[in-house]
Amino acid sequence: MPGASLSPAELRRYARHLVLPEIGPAGQQKLREARVVIVGAGGLGSPAALYLAAAGVGTLGLVDDDRVDEANLQRQVLYGSASLGRAKLAAAAERLHDLNPHVQVEPFPLRLTSANALDVLGAFDVVVDGSDNFPTRYLVNDACVLLGKPDVYGSIFRFEGQVGVFGVEGGPCYRCLFRDPPPAELAPSCEEAGVLGVITGIVGSLQALEVMKLITGAGRPLVGRLLLVDALASRFRELAVKRDPDCPMCGERPTITQLIDYEAFCAGAAPDAPSADAEITCDRLARERRAGPVQLVDVREEWEWEICRIDGASHIPLDQLEFRIGELDRDRPVVAYCHHGNRSLWARQVLLEGGFRDVKSLAGGIEAWAQEIEPGMPRY
Hints:
This protein is α/β, with parallel strands linked by helices. It has helices at 8-13, 15-18, 24-33, 45-55, 88-99, 117-121, 134-147, 174-177, 190-193, 197-216, 262-266, 282-291, 302-307, 318-321, 343-353, 365-372, and strands spanning 35-39, 59-63, 104-108, 126-129, 151-157, 160-166, 225-230, 235-240, 279-280, 295-298, 314-315, 334-337, 359-362.
């Protein structure tokens, strides 16, 4: 019952919370009365669900339509070998109830779409985005903005992770950071790129932490800040993310006022297969730069540019390249680079279609450059 005192069993269970001045009995009751939905009961959703249930969040919604596969067990700690082949939500509900019988689990064994997102997410106070694909990520963001719900975002790639809170009044949304998705072909899945199991635990736990701060009012949530996690270097970095007044979703004159077809929005035609001379190695580029100036264009996002860059490069994000192509000299060779060398292949195609004759993509991107040429360069 909302507002009711904690029971003796709850007082015993949450004793370590109750002695924290930032939480105490009042904060624990807020947790008990809260309704939190997790989109995706996988690598991120698993630790988030476990810690939110253990913390005493009263109602946990879980959205997932998948079944437990053996390849999940390396990182999706909600499940064990006995769960193989079962629906994830059935197995998850049993595990969470065993962890904390005071928590109510509301399963949504479905795929979140534009048709059901507002109904599903609208019944909860906070949304945790544990998805692993761009269509769902943009869908969750847009639905949260329309509903006025906080979107606790997390993502992982190989050994790296990101955490932030979007959709809070006055703060940015996901589109303020990434207005448009990368082409589908440049967004490899965990299966294609690999992922360290531990990084999902770190990022999912941080998402649970942000949820608890939002509910209890303790601390300073990651609103207007993006936390970057580098597991290999055991390093955390923080980037400021400002609300974009021109954002099509949350800006002063939004152009997106309803949910769209996110599969179509995030789909894109693949670039032509690169020819043998489409890329240039870091070593060769370094030699050419020693011989004379090279026309370099960095096609990464603004926040990536702020972390590190190759001296002498022009910065034109990929989604602006077509409109700013006149800033580059068509009569000079161009080398485009990004983080890992994927977006720059798209940039190469844009420039070739724009009349440039000699364009190459830096193989391995600035990540390879930092490893091979400038080992002291900050990495992310």
